[in-house]
Amino acid sequence: QVALVESGGTSVQPGESLRLSCAVSGFSVSAYYMGWFRQAAGKQREWVSCVRPDGSTTYVDSVKGRFTISKDYDKNILVLQMNSLKPGDTAMYYCSATTRRTYCDTRAGSYDHWGQGTQVIVSS
To answer: What is the mean predicted confidence (pLDDT) over 29-44?
Structure first.
């Protein structure tokens, strides 16, 4: 049975860092294209980052240079390291996986599996 469980979200001040984790069961993180999305209150879900099976990555422009997506193959988890956080990064963060795409699709509808989300609040 497939399950994705995020953790690591909390409230931080601008400029601080957070590390989000997504524990995966039911498949290997190396098998599929996996991504992080976020959804701020009253807004649509937004694609943040994607990692390909070969480990290469891509990011939305607003987080480039600040966020890093990676996989821990030993623990079978997906990680999002977030540095230099801004108030605009405040959102519920979701990890996801697609079994139907062979590229980093930025559309949420292309992803089959989702976690329950972890809340990140960036505020002074």
So the answer is: 96
